[in-house]
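U., I forgot to send this yesterday:
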Amino acid sequence: MSPMLIKLFFIMLFQTAVQALSQVTLKMGMQLIHNFTWTWSCFYHQIFLNGWLLLGILLIIIANVIWFLVLKFFPLTYAYPLTALGFVFGMVAGIFILHETVIWTQWVGVALIVGGCFFLLR
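Result:
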């Protein structure tokens, strides 16, 4: 594997981990919103003061800035398929942070994704 692909792989590991973490924090923030209405009070109290939502938005911005840099410096044909690693991080975060249940077919899917990323970089 070339040094460029190794560098890309580790950058994408970080980028997809940040992206997945942003989705976890957004989910946690959305779970705190009760009885949503299109009123200023609802937006102010339940959204603008919701730390999980704000953290999720910040993490999305960070992940996208990293992605923009990846697009600038690496071939899209290698970089874009590696975004599938986000599925792995999302599932692991769902298990350990959100305490969700994962069935065996999901594990098979994750194994296929990881295998695909391995073959992509060879």
